[in-house]
């Protein structure tokens, strides 16, 4: 499947048109592969596709999907819920959507998501759960919360899937669906017009089909130019954190991860194992529910009082953990996080990036974690595993890239490259080199 940049080149040569690409994407949104992936499609955007290709804008009129978390002018923003179904239409596009439009994107539709973005699994009891396109035999979770966004990119219904990442909501579905997800440093992209989960941790970012597409998407969303040094792997220094982040890997993930490390070492990369003991402190730091519980409850408390019965019970339970957090505990958490960030950044100084499995498991069957109290234990166990590695980067206020590292024909496994705040260009630059080294395996 061609990525966005390759398609742009083809359009420039007169091979096809953005309107044709948009029509194909729109048809895909209605296919069985995209069942439950879209909450609304936007066929009226077809005219914009031809116009923006002619204007030679960066996204060339090509189809992009929008997570149901973001305002689109004239439409309600329900965040995958039913309790906001009658919300007034947005008066303007969110800042992220406006930037995508300005760059020439044609919006193919609004994508399904975990209700209010509060889970890494991607299950939605109101609108159904889109199945992971990587396995047509067993319906598997797509990952969340940006579930529909991932499916839209993996099936070819969009070149870019706009989403958000508070604890891994871009990187988890990217890893499970076999595509690329980039979580930038949070301050680089605007949150205006996006329904919040955690104002401290929320990041606006996207999924794509390649790392070079991720670079382009980030440049559009952050309104900045990525500086690439194009250093070869032989000049790269990576760390592998052994503390907790490699625990509990299933055999497929362990094999893919070790194979990726061998390939990168064979290409000349320096890879050093380190103990990052500060990782063990995260459980204590977030024992009261962390920023997400406190900040989501602050936003939801009035809506819960009015329409709490309409919430996904699993989401409601996690939001209501914020009731118990006291003001002094929140202030202590802010201070403790700052100290923790300084400790971790010091340990990572001198490395281009840390290498870890994005998530320690491959996608489980939807049936194992589907809505129902009898499956709550399995759901929360899977959710905790999926979020464990990715949430470290959000607490670090860092940046991270997930790209596929699995063998052909097997369930997708994501390799994560991550670092602290404002190392975005280095992580993307290294990601291009890593992707090129691993590409023959796909």
TrEMBL record:
<dbReference type="GO" id="GO:0004040">
    <property type="term" value="F:amidase activity"/>
</dbReference>
<dbReference type="Pfam" id="PF01425">
    <property type="entry name" value="Amidase"/>
</dbReference>
<keyword id="KW-0378">Hydrolase</keyword>
<dbReference type="InterPro" id="IPR020556">
    <property type="entry name" value="Amidase_CS"/>
</dbReference>
<protein>
    <submittedName>
        <fullName>Amidase</fullName>
        <ecNumber>3.5.1.4</ecNumber>
    </submittedName>
</protein>
<dbReference type="InterPro" id="IPR036928">
    <property type="entry name" value="AS_sf"/>
</dbReference>
<dbReference type="InterPro" id="IPR000120">
    <property type="entry name" value="Amidase"/>
</dbReference>
<dbReference type="InterPro" id="IPR023631">
    <property type="entry name" value="Amidase_dom"/>
</dbReference>
<feature type="domain" description="Amidase">
    <location>
        <begin position="34"/>
        <end position="428"/>
    </location>
</feature>
């Amino acid at each position: 499947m061609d990525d966005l940049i390759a398609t742009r080149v083809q359009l420039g040569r007169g091979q096809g048109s953005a309107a044709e690409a948009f029509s194909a994407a729109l048809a895909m949104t209605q296919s069985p592969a995209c069942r439950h992936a879209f909450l609304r499609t936007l066929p009226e955007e077809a005219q914009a596709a031809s116009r923006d290709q002619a204007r030679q804008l960066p996204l060339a009129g090509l189809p992009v999907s929008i997570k149901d978390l973001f305002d689109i002018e004239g439409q309600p923003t329900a965040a995958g819920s039913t309790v906001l179904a009658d919300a007034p239409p947005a008066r303007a596009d969110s800042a992220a959507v406006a930037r995508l439009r300005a760059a020439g994107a044609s919006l193919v539709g609004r994508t399904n998501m975990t209700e209010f973005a509060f889970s890494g699994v991607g299950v939605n009891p109101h609108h159904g759960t889109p199945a992971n396109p990587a396995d047509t035999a067993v319906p598997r979770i797509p990952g969340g919360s940006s579930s529909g966004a991932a499916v839209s990119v993996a099936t070819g219904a969009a070149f870019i899937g706009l989403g958000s990442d508070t604890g891994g909501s871009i990187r988890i579905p990217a890893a499970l669906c076999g595509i690329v997800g980039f979580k930038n440093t949070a301050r680089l992209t605007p949150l205006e017009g996006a329904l919040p989960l955690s104002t401290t941790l929320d990041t606006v970012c996207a999924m794509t089909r390649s790392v070079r597409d991720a670079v382009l998407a980030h440049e559009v969303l952050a309104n900045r130019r990525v500086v690439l040094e194009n250093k070869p792997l032989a000049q790269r220094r990576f760390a592998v954190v052994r503390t907790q982040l490699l625990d509990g890997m299933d055999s497929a993930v362990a094999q893919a991860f070790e194979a990726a490390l061998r390939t990168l070492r064979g290409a000349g990369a320096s890879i050093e194992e380190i103990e990052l003991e500060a990782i063990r402190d995260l459980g204590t730091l977030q024992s009261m529910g962390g920023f997400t519980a406190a900040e989501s409850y602050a936003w939801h408390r009035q809506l819960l009082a009015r329409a709490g019965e309409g919430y996904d019970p699993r989401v409601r339970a996690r939001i209501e953990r914020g009731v118990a957090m006291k003001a002094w505990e929140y202030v202590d958490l802010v201070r403790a996080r700052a100290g923790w960030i300084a400790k971790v950044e010091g340990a990572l100084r001198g490395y281009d990036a840390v290498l870890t499995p994005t998530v320690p498991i491959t996608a489980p069957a939807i049936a194992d974690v589907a809505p129902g109290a009898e499956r709550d234990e399995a759901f929360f166990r899977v959710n905790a595993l999926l979020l464990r590695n990715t949430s470290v980067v959000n607490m670090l206020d860092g940046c991270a890239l997930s790209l596929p590292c699995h063998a052909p024909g097997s369930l997708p496994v994501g390799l994560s490259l991550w670092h602290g705040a404002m190392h975005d260009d280095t992580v993307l630059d290294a990601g291009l080199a890593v992707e090129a080294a691993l590409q023959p395996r796909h």
